[in-house]
Amino acid sequence: MNIDLSRRSFLKLAGAGAAATTIGAMGFGAAEAATAAHVRAFKLASTTETRNVCTYCSVACGILMYSKGDLSAGEKAELIHIEGDADHPTNRGTLCPKGAALKDFVKSETRATKPRHRAPGADTWQDISWEEAFDKIARAIKDDRDKNFIEKNAAGVTVNRWTTMGFLAASGGTNETGWLTYKTVRSMGVVGFDNQARV
């Protein structure tokens, strides 16, 4: 197939094609206008990024938390987004389902923010102060230890054991916190002691 096309006609045709393509790419069509009308601003553009570590389990993945509100101006920061930290060597930007749901955990309406107590036989919970909660816990621990502490075994050897209480430590603490927790628990004679990292 031979087309008789002069150089002038070819340049006119090429110019018209380039102009039509450019106009279409500039978004003058109805579809492009409708799409542009629904484009929203990037939600992380005006946020503060904070690096942290997820303490949900012992893996300790790196997370990036994004919040709005200027703390230096006395504003309360509001957490709006959490994602994996791509620069963290443990998870390299990925998060498990628990880590991905951290924002929902922080902003949950049912999240416990103060101590509550349900009396024996009651069917409702009552808000109590932190002081009252600590007093109740300390009293229960002391009563149980006084009742069940084993100072010497059957052979008369000093063992200092408390076998009726166990302690489960968290995995998100520092080495110093772990050392202090271990010393505290062992000094009370607690035998059943484990860590979330091992369980």
Note the overall shape: elongated
Helix proportion = 25-40%
Q: Spell out the helices and strands N to C.
A: HHEEEHHEEHEEHE
| Strand-residue proportion | 15-25%
CA(first)-CA(last) distance: 78 Å
Number of domains: 2
Average residue-wise pLDDT: 85
What key attributes describe this structure?
alpha+beta, N-terminal domain of TfIIb, 2 domains, three-stranded mixed beta sheet, 8 strands, elongated
Task: Describe the protein's architecture and organization.
The protein is of the alpha+beta class and 199 residues long. The chain folds into 2 domains: 48-107, Single Sheet (N-terminal domain of TfIIb), CATH 2.20.25; 116-195, no CATH class. Helix content is 35%, strand content 23%. It has 6 helices and 8 strands; from the N terminus they run ααβββααββαββαβ. It has a 3-stranded antiparallel beta sheet. Strands 6-7-8 form a 3-stranded mixed beta sheet. It has a two-stranded antiparallel sheet with strand order 4-5. The longest helix is centred in the N-terminal third of the chain and has 19 residues, at 7-25. The radius of gyration is 32 Å and the shape is elongated.
